[in-house]
Amino acid sequence: METTPRHPRNVVRWRRGALEHAGVPRGLAERLAREPGVDLHALIGLVERGCPPETAARILWPLRGPAARP
């Protein structure tokens, strides 16, 4: 498991677990857990209100260039 400067390995693991618990598929949860710009609580809130995880990720994914997306 790769880490980011802002998220040590144990934080990434916790974030991934929280996302998976909310119903986010494992692969997407892994990518989102490593992304420091994703608001985990906002994403989980959208999913809990019925937004599909992939759509919630697109809404909250930080933009980096014209083709940035999860």
Secondary-structure map:
Layout: H1 9-21, H2 26-34, H3 40-48, H4 53-60
Helix pairs in contact: 1-2, 3-4
Keyphrases for this structure?
70 residues; mainly alpha
Describe this structure in words.
This protein has 70 residues and is an all-alpha fold. Helices cover 56% and strands 0% of the residues. It is built from four helices and no strands.
Discrete helix count: 4
Oligomeric state of the chains?
A: single chain
**Fraction of residues in helix:** 55-70%
Order of helices and strands: HHHH
Structural class: mainly alpha
- What gyration radius follows from the Cα positions, in whole Å? 11 Å
Sum up the overall morphology in one term. Answer: globular
Describe, in short, the structure shown.
With 70 residues, the protein is mainly alpha-helical. It has helices spanning 9-21, 26-34, 40-48, 53-60.
